[in-house]
């Protein structure tokens, strides 16, 4: 069943240099940095979160920057492409912007009835701009260089390249609120009822070659759950299916459970709240100050000395 308030929550990626990453997503794509934190498993490196103005679920793309990360080789069992949603009639603006900023892109085309403009980020991550009527009335980020009428509202969706699709399809429809709603060639479209992050395309790989992790590799894709109660419920269903979900982990801005899907992609379940505002001293400061979880707060001075400052 196609459910409201279900869909993609956030997507996390390994990137190269942090400043290059921030320049691209904030200055060139016009997203808002909504959280600047550290990788909780390696506090000497950042974890950067970009989203729409409100930092809503379905809009945040996050990065683990490693300056010396090697370039990835794409393969099966991965999120292959990430698509951003823009209001109808915006693609010609974005095409011109990519030309002006010398961002590599391909010619627009149509997929499942929607105009698509493919492009890539500085690490070779495959991205798309998609015109979507569901975005028309959503707010953009007013402090961006991109005019509000054309601004990215959040995710349209993502494309997963898989060796086999069946079990991943079942997870989407049985646990995550998606409905199978279209098919074209070796691609199947699944949709949820939310305004952002509502679409996932599963693509059967013709040549199932595994890739190599590096900058530009999607680390995981997270899906929305309403609250901790629903998180536990879905976790239990995942467990009953014979998969191995982690315990609930407190990420402070949301609570999370991770599990590997049989198709190879790492999935996360994340609660809608409390959200990025909950750790900011004010809306104005959201994403500007370095957020550290309590266990790292005593080491703040040392951590701040090790991180290269980022200007946005
Ligand atoms: Zn995550």
How do the helices and strands follow one another from N- to C-terminus?
Answer: EHEEEEHEEEEHEEEEHEEEEH
SSE-based structural type: alpha/beta
CATH level 1 name = Alpha Beta
Q: Which ions and ligands are bound to the chains?
A: zinc ion
Relevant CATH superfamily:
2,3-Dihydroxybiphenyl 1,2-Dioxygenase, domain 1
Radius of gyration: 18 Å
Strand order of the largest sheet: 14-15-16-13-1-4-3-2-17
Shape: globular
- Total number of β-strand segments? 17
Number of helices: 5
CATH architecture descriptor = Roll
Biggest sheet record: 9 strands, mixed
The amount of beta strand, in percent, is 35-45%
How many domains? The number is 1
Distance between the termini: 41 Å
CATH fold-level name: 2,3-Dihydroxybiphenyl 1,2-Dioxygenase, domain 1
- Mean pLDDT, all residues: 96
Given as residue ranges, the uncertain stretches (5+ residues, pLDDT < 50) are none
Helix content: 10-25%
